[in-house]
Amino acid sequence: MSELKYTEDHEWISLDGDIGTVGITDYAQEQLGDVVFVELPDVGKTLAKGEEAAVIESVKAAAEIYAPVDGEVTEVNAALNDDPSLVNTDAQGKGWFIKLRIGDTGATDGLMDDNAYAAFIDGLN
Amino acid sequence: MRYLPLTELDRHDMLAAIGAPSVESLFRDVPEAARLNGGFDLPDHKSELEVEQIIGAMADRNMAAGDVPSFLGAGAYHHHIPAAVDHLIQRGEFLTSYTPYQPEISQGTLQALFEFQTQVALITGMEVANASMYDGATSCAEAVLMARRITRRDKAILSGGLHPHYRDVTETQTRYLDLKIVATAPDLTGSEDLAALIDDDTACVVVQNPGFFGHLRDFSALAVQCQAKGALLIAVVPEVISLGAVTAPGDMGADIVVAEGQSLGNPLGFGGPYVGLFAAREKHVRQMPGRLCGQTVDEDGRRGWVLTLSTREQHIRREKATSNICTNAGLCALAFTIHLALLGEEGFRKLAALNHARAVQLADRLSSVRGIDVVTDAFFNEFAVRLPRPAAGVVSELAAQRVLAGVPVSRLIPNDTGLADILLLAVTETTGEDDMDALVAALGEVL
Amino acid sequence: MAHSRDLSRPRQAGSPVAARDTVLGHQGLRLEEDLLFELDSPGLSGVDLPNVPAVEARLGGLERRSEIGLPGLSEPEIVRHYTRLSQKNYAIDMGTYPLGSCTMKHNPRLNEKVVRLPGFAGLHPLQPVETAQGALELIDATAQWLKTLTGMPAIAMSPAAGAHGELCGMMAIRAALDARDGGETPRRRVLVPESAHGTNPATAAACGFTVDPIPANDDGRVDVAAFAAKLGDDVAAVMLTNPNTCGLFEPDMIEIARLIHQADGYFYCDGANFNAIVGRVRPGDLGIDCMHINLHKTFSTPHGGGGPGAGPVVLSEALAPFAPRPWIVHDGDGFALVENDADTGDATPIGRLKGFHGQMGMFVRAFAYMLSHGKDGLSQVSGDAVLNANYVMARLQDVMTPSFEGPCMHECLFDDRFLDGSGVTTLDFSKAMIDEGYHPMTMYFPLVVHGAMLIEPTETESKRGLDDFIAVMRRLAESARAGEQARFTGAPEFTPRRRLDETMAARKPVLRWFPAAETAEAAE
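^ Those are the sequences you sent over. The predicted structure of the assembly is below.
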């Protein structure tokens, strides 16, 4: 798998061939607090970049997760249905949301890398 | 003014602390042109005695259903409310508290809501229930919207046995939401075939039991047909006491059950406030409207309750909320829950049996009155009769004799000449032999 | 399924934590209470009913045969159960309840008395109108008072609460636009300030509108230039709360009204805070097209732990024809009801929003409240409400951080800057207030300031009561700054329950009681 790339909405994506795995960053889960529910899209759904892909809920907030690139949903993380706290304990690993089949794998080039995202977060605080 | 505790000296001292010359000066952001300065025409304040006299005089100009033989129903029923109910709901800790947003000092309201939700789930035969809606009619509209969210389809079929107000409210509340409502013609005898109307666009079929005209139907087969087509069955219960005698909608396979809860704990009150019940299957709980109370533990591990799944609601989800409802029918729900708690399994069943038995007695007596035809075969505590002339006129004539004879269907469905002669009569545990005597005698006179 | 009580089962409700355990978990007046369902004595009932006449059932074969599962208890057990529950609640009757935006003022008991008169309580909504003239007269009189107080020509009485009133008003706006624009109006955008109640955007969405937020300026008011820039051919309406949710009067109301009307849109006013100006300012004079009135706020019908409320909506001439059925008309010497489309004449109502005629019980209470206060009392209500809020703000501004400069209206807004570096959050601060005997203020609303604390004392608090409250708030603020973190993060301590685990409640929702056997099955 490739290194993680990040959006300004705090999603991450990592590529494995033409399949991209998408989740939210550790920073984002910390801001949200205890995650209590994740609403995932149907497998097969086609998403455009920036389109709502999932909804994540804490006790007092709900946030939309947007597709970082165009793609078709090939898999969702069913483990989140039983244990949404995976997003808190392992946001950038077992707490992934969806896998997307991506036509243009170059689409992630414009996203931030580790260093750029770290600098972006610093700018927010 | 007896409700205002500040004295002139207080006001003076407070203005000094603020550094403002006058109370009026605190309103400086209000454009001068919009300040009334006393320029409007209303009377000055009145004593408690005077207010009681004025409002008492208005009350005296009404003929209370409780004071005369009354057979009025059609979605609101006169039942006896045990004295303990009103005593308990008037405790200041219930009456004068807010929505339980601070759970540590609201466990009373929260535990009562948890008990309410459980009772509603049990009597409707469903898995979960919310903490109440405004009334039965608005619950019905919200159920249709919930079915649309779940199925992502936009057609709703409304039975001709649905209360006209419920239909009207559902049509109104959905009119700007690209939802197609197919409402069938008034179904006097409960014989319509709804299954034939279900197609692949159908989000839900809405039925009512007992139907508006009083009839009882088994919707089990319809539930199966809905399921086969991917549509939801919504069952409406306008008279909640019926659930003590009649198979629960949940046991017939309904996906959402809504009900008017007024009959338990809440007086007729000329139509409100009442309490809407809303129950569903657990798998759909995140699509429910309204508040939900859930069980949890506190820091010391003791059981307690909180409002939960709030991300569905307007104060968090704003334009994406499942409903815009905020204030619901809290105190009416409490009255409902206390009344049902007092009844218990035995009492609830006996109350239902009593309502039904008295209604059967009246139906039997009326069938022997010349010119009256009892239309409804299977019913709970309300049935339709056909009179030899328009029912509205008969009801007016009987009202002049201080008998409230029931609801003429034309009051709610005015333009259907085939229904002009139909009268709905409801009987409850409050209806005595002498009331039935008075009705039968009066009808005999005018018909 | 009724079941006998298992005496060997540990009492779930009572696992005492105080220094000294008690046998059942009670601690003096702090009494534990099990769930109704755990107190079941099968066969008992708290209601004695007459015997059921023997008849042949006509239920069409639909007899309910299986057990429902309701518990059986006697009347004394029920009275004790709910009395104990009630004692776990905070209430206005007990103390100051400064919940901003919610208006927790005294609920006069006269109002409870008159609503229970048999002539109202025993009245059926569908009895012939000639037998309910007094009820129609009361609704009509209440409507007249509300129209006079708001300076508006028409009113829809049936909405059941504030949010329901919003739905009524916004649907009337949609209908008016459709009628004016011929067919379906292309206007779909509704402008809503960021500080608005959540019901505003939720309502707009329920009418098929999209929501476009208006930013606030540094003074906590609508940024008029930003608002004007957002106007256009697709704007249907603006929804504005005034006084706004920061507790401030919008001084540019008249200009905002002019601008939205110039853009051919309508002005919806959220009247949740009408109590700040009642008897002093008529919203109609500010140029609005409609406004809901929360009778459970301004006119003191009890909140009842979450309702019921009532949300009549006043309407301009332009919107009046679209008001929902039913309404009352004068008919000779009496009153009649327009309930069906057949009788609506030239009007084109949006339809019907509520079964029957609205929240009659709330009309009776609100009418009693209005008569009791009168013209002189109502302007004193708003004056004292505003005075009390400004007094609290003045006495707290040196130890807490007001978000905006005063004077405020009926409520004052603080943010959490005064807690910076203390390790104490707005939530912690609120919980510490509970230990001091107060219901917290509204917290984290409005969303436009950080860690909001919105305090609405209301006019029914005495100066003595306010001075006590102020003393507590000052002490807490000083304590937070002095680093006494534990009194906050550990709070509340002196309550029936300490902080509850809301995450657990939301992750694995338990929304009803199940018999112990079924719970065990579910766990397997």
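The first helix of chain A runs from residue 26 to 32. Chain A is about 20% helix and 35% strand.

Shout if you want it in another format.
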